[in-house]
Amino acid sequence: MVKITAPVTADWVAAAERAARMLRRGYQAARVGDGVYRVRSASHQDTIHTVRIRNLGQLDATCDCPHGQHEGAKGQCWHKASALCQETRRLPRPLVSAEEIERRMARFARA
Ligand SMILES: [Zn+2]
Predict the structure, then answer these.
(1) N or C: which end of the chain has fewer CB within 10 A?
(2) 97 CA distance to ligand 1 centroid (A)?
(3) Which chain residues have CB less than 5 Å from ligand 1, an ion?
């Protein structure tokens, strides 16, 4: 089980939403090694990006896409979000009560 200790910022929510849209188009990170994922570029069909997860709980990952390489780039790329989502799916989940889910989802409530 993994506990996400990093704040789930608007950047990450946006990246995860983009990853979900890309998944519906057939794009998804594929695990190729321990914490290493490959994701096909949506804009350049022959380009594959490599995501390396350093710490899942802290949402700490690198991506070799142009956005990921740009120092001080705003936001997060969907490649990282896709890989992090895949990685969490690999791990066993504890049963969570409905109350606990409500409590967690409250973090995403809009002001
Ligand atoms: Zn990327």
Answers:
(1) C
(2) 34
(3) 63, 65, 68, 77, 79
- Count other Cβ atoms within 10 Å, centred on residue 86: 19
In a domain, 4, yes or no: no
C-alpha 48 – ligand 1 centre gap (Å): 10
Residue 34 confidence (pLDDT):
95
For residue 27, is it within any domain? yes
Provide the domain limits for residue 70. Answer: 10-108
- Tell me how many domains the chain contains: 1
Q: Is the pLDDT of residue 102 over 90?
A: no
Q: Cβ(51)–Cβ(37) under 8 Å?
A: yes
Percent of the chain with pLDDT over 90: 58
What's the gap in Å between 86 CA and the centre of ligand 1? Answer: 15
Q: Among 13-22, 34-43, 100-109, where is mean pLDDT lowest?
A: 100-109
pTM of the model: 0.78
